[in-house]
Specification:
Layout: H1 8-49, H2 52-77, H3 97-109, H4 115-130, E1 133-139, H5 145-153, E2 171-175, E3 183-187, H6 196-208, E4 211-216, H7 222-232, E5 238-242, H8 250-263, E6 268-271, E7 277-283, E8 289-295, H9 301-363, H10 371-374, H11 376-388, H12 395-409, H13 412-425, H14 435-461, H15 466-478, H16 481-499
Parallel strand pairs: 1-3, 1-4, 4-5, 5-6
Antiparallel strand pairs: 2-3, 7-8
Helix pairs in contact: 3-9, 4-9, 9-11, 9-14, 9-16, 11-12, 11-14, 12-15, 13-14, 13-16, 14-15, 14-16
């Protein structure tokens, strides 16, 4: 019952009780403040009589006590880590060319396919030897990248079309003007291309460049803004070229530039006109109209001046940034190749140990020996997977993990065995299902689930996280039991018939 629902006498009584409680709390607070004030004055009088040395010791002790309380409070109140909180934030990548080359050599020795990563090392060496400044033109489809490069270089072989996505590959064009430096302008596919492979190629080429020119033809879309933010993380000079300025009046152009500069204060923004063709209407002496195309004047002087200024101001750091970016790009490709190799080898190990567990059950004189709980094959599989990921796993830790996995099976083991028996009965000509076959199918389900759980944990966390692996194991042992049991039943029957 709320206060509004109480009759008037009870309302008055309730308010009176609240008033008494408020007065009591106010009086208690006043007494506490007076007591603390008296205590503080007494302490101050005592401290005032101490020598400077004792006063300093007291201050240090008080500070130490406060620091200890702060640390303990932080340890107790800090946010608890989730059960998967130990996952790696990202791969450890080589820092320089020498470390990258060494990592490639080590990966080669392990059988990793390093072709793509090694290509970045060759590209790094090639661009170092050329002493060339690469300027990548990046941007949305049909923003005018190709037309702008043609206006700068005078190259007639650049495909320019009003339809979106004319550029389909990476092309480099030499800038012939005497700028005191060898410039190569890179025309890359648009970032909003429908082909993900061309998008990947364009982004990688932007990371290989010394400077990046991002071309747009008006207000930025959300995707364009996101790409610009990503390009800023490359830590190299970035210029935004606002193309097709002839579309706008002077007042409109000024307003657009103002908004762009307000939203992108750290990026230099320059209006340009790539030239091209424009349609005009001519009227002859008889008054007849005739439509024809004429060349549109290109306005690129401001952009070229900005590029040359950036090169002059940052020439010493451009190569270093380019090299670091290429090493990082190659390191990322090497990491992906290493992960793919480990995943492939890990899946092979899981299949091998699953097969051994099933074969042991089929060949057992006394079917039902719990291979998982006894631990030998389970421990060996987990140790092999850990070694594949270069994770040091102590034998006692692995055995403890296997024991916990066995305990987590619990009542599920009965369900797994029942599922294995039912699936085997569905195969014609099997007759009475033997205990060895049932356990073979069960061990197939268990070892495959356990191996995939460990493999997934190692790939995500870079270590054997027990709770995380147990969670994945529970998911694996619970999902699609019947379909997987049929697969292992066929394998078990093949081994059983070979034995017979």
């Amino acid at each position: 019952m709320t206060e509004q629902q109480l009759p008037p006498p009870q309302k008055r009584l309730l308010r009176l009780l609240l008033l008494v409680a408020l007065l009591f709390l106010s009086l208690l607070t006043l007494l506490l403040v007076l007591q603390l004030t008296e205590s503080a004055l007494s302490v101050w009088q005592i401290l005032d009589q101490l020598s400077p040395v004792l006063l300093a010791v007291y201050a240090i002790g008080l500070f130490g006590f406060a620091l200890l309380v702060t640390i303990l409070s932080w340890l107790l109140l800090r946010p608890a880590r989730g059960k998967h909180a130990n996952r790696n934030m990202g791969p450890t990548l080589p820092r320089d060319r020498e470390a990258f080359a060494e990592a490639l050599a080590q990966a080669d020795g392990k059988g990793v396919d390093t072709a793509e990563a090694r290509q970045e090392l060759r590209e790094l060496d090639r661009r170092r030897d050329q002493l060339t400044i690469y300027v990548a033109f990046f941007g949305a489809v049909s923003a005018g990248k190709s037309a702008l490069i043609r206006a700068i270089t005078g190259a007639e072989g650049i495909a320019v079309d009003v339809r979106a996505g004319t550029t389909r590959q990476i092309d480099h064009y030499r800038y012939d003007e005497d700028a005191g430096v060898d410039l190569r302008l890179t025309d890359a596919p648009g970032i909003l291309d429908v082909d993900p492979e061309r998008v990947r190629v364009a982004r990688e080429e932007a990371r290989r460049a010394h400077l990046v020119i991002y071309v747009c033809d008006g207000e930025l879309t959300r995707d364009q803004h996101r790409e610009l933010v990503e390009l800023q993380t490359l830590e190299r000079p970035l210029i935004l070229a606002l193309n097709k300025q002839d579309r706008y009046s002077d007042q409109e152009l000024k307003a657009i530039l103002g908004r762009l500069r307000e939203n992108l204060p750290d990026i230099e923004i320059i209006p340009v006109q790539a030239g091209g063709k424009e349609e005009v209407v001519r009227i002859d002496a008889s008054g007849s109209e005739r439509r024809e195309l004429r060349d549109r004047e290109a306005r690129i002087e401001g952009l070229m001046a900005a590029i040359e200024k950036r090169i002059a101001m940052e020439r010493e750091t451009l190569d270093a940034r380019r090299d670091a970016s290429l090493v990082q790009l190659g390191g990322e490709k090497l990491h992906r190749a290493t992960q793919a190799h480990r995943r492939q080898q890990g899946e092979r190990l899981v299949r091998d140990y699953t097969g051994k567990a099933m074969l042991g059950a089929v060949a057992a004189v006394s079917p039902g020996t719990d291979i998982l709980i006894q631990g030998y094959l389970g421990v060996q599989m987990v140790k092999a997977l850990a070694a594949l990921y270069e994770v040091k796993a102590k034998e006692v830790d692995v055995e403890h993990f296997i024991d916990l996995a066995s305990q987590n099976l619990g009542k599920r083991m009965t369900l797994v065995l029942a599922m294995a028996g039912n699936v085997l009965k569905a195969f014609p000509g099997v007759g009475t299902v033997t205990g060895g076959l049932v356990h073979a199918v069960a061990y197939g389900l268990i070892f495959e689930g356990l191996g995939k759980a460990v493999l997934k944990t190692l790939e995500e966390s870079g270590s054997l996280q027990t709770l995380q692996a147990l969670d994945y194991f529970e998911e694996a042992i619970s999902g699609d039991l019947e379909g997987r049991a049929k697969y292992f039943a066929r394998l078990a029957l093949e081994e059983f018939r070979k034995k017979q």
